[in-house]
């Protein structure tokens, strides 16, 4: 039985590689992963690359752009996760950052406060790269932080770890 073809885990590594190639943001095999604007941009880049000859200069440029976008997204997510873990959400960090089409805002009155905090994070910290367009995904995360009464502490810690000053990468480095 250990070597049978019925092993459900046999393709696990291939599944992870496929998820990475498709760049599923949150839930593996989530069919809604291309619903957000940044997901749609990446998806369109991947589709465009697949239609080009691998030896072409256009393919190489698009491949580099895809890699850069993925790395930027991973870096931003890593920053958010680092702050959440520092706030004591070690076990909950991944679920707090998991956003799909099925995610909802916990309280519609929190929406404007969540937008304000997200804008403040983008303007007053380096949690997002300068070229980053704000992702709706992080609006849901901020809403969750508001519901947990941790949004202000998150902003304070983000300001300390990722200050907006030029030449300063992180306070802990």
From TrEMBL:
This is MREG protein. The gene is Mreg. Pfam families: MREG. It comes from the Eukaryota. One of its GO terms (cellular component) is melanosome. PANTHER family: MELANOREGULIN. It comes from Alectura lathami. One of its GO terms (biological process) is melanocyte differentiation.
